[in-house]
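Dear colleagues,

I hope this message finds you well. In preparation for our joint manuscript, I am sending the Putative ABC transporter ATP-binding protein YbhF (Halomonas lysinitropha) sequence together with its predicted structure, so that both groups work from identical material. I would be grateful if you could confirm receipt.
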Amino acid sequence: MIRVEGLSKTFSDGFKALVDVDLSIQRGEIFALLGPNGAGKTTLISVICGLVNASRGRVLVDGHDNVDDYRAARELIGLVPQELTNEAFTTVWDTVSFSRGLFGKPQDPAHIEKVLRSLTLWEKRDSRLLELSGGMKRRVLIAKALSHEPQVLFLDEPTAGVDVELRREMWEVVRSLRDQGVTIILTTHYIEEAEEMADRIGVIRRGEIVLVENTHALMRKLGSKELTLHLQEPLEAVPESLAGHGLELANEGHALVYSYDAARQEGGSSISGLLADLEAVGLRVKDLHTRQSSLEDIFVSLVQERA
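The corresponding structure tokens are as follows:
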């Protein structure tokens, strides 16, 4: 649905916001773009949406060049910006209807009603925007972006500043849009948001895409696991015969911690060998538990690795 080829952006002060970015986003997927502040997330979105001119490279939206055929490309895109930029004294209905008109679309009250109902804004349709909560105002931004029936929706920090309950409700809205065939690209600082929703994840660092991967494959490939074995009797040191397992003492000698890459385990053979070796040296385990690294752990390690 979107193809970015050799995209670079250098501002007048010499700052390189994007450096030779290549990216393909599939039709109907939810794609999460992660990166620290200043990494280039918003600049990349702005260039794709035609709000910022690229220094080099090109962007195709469903085959339409966003410069040479910008009207066709822009009509396919809905953008929900990070900042709340609503008109304070306009009603919800009027501002969403006006956004539809900006794209030359004929009036369609049935579509506007459908959008407002899907975002639980129908009861607020006659309310002025200044009367709404921050979460409701953000929903209005999404309604405006959907008013002209786009095929691609960009969400720049869509749940920033909203409570957990509302955030999860908005996740459901995004999923329903994906089910309707809309391609979703979101940037977020909430790692669990990407882990929960995205089909694929891209990581951007200093204007460069450093990784694009299927979410579950990324967790399998880079996620490490930690097995903690709680001992019946404390140890002063790890026995030499167990040194090959890379064990660490914890909890004042009452526990052994074994770190391993889940993707490289072959039928649990390494863990089986560890347990056999523990039994061989007479160590008895009274309890054990595992912990798998989260997407946040993976993200932090990726960013630090390329710092």
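For the figure legend, we might mention the following. The chain has two domains: 2-219, 224-292. The longest strand covers residues 16-25.

With kind regards,
E.M.
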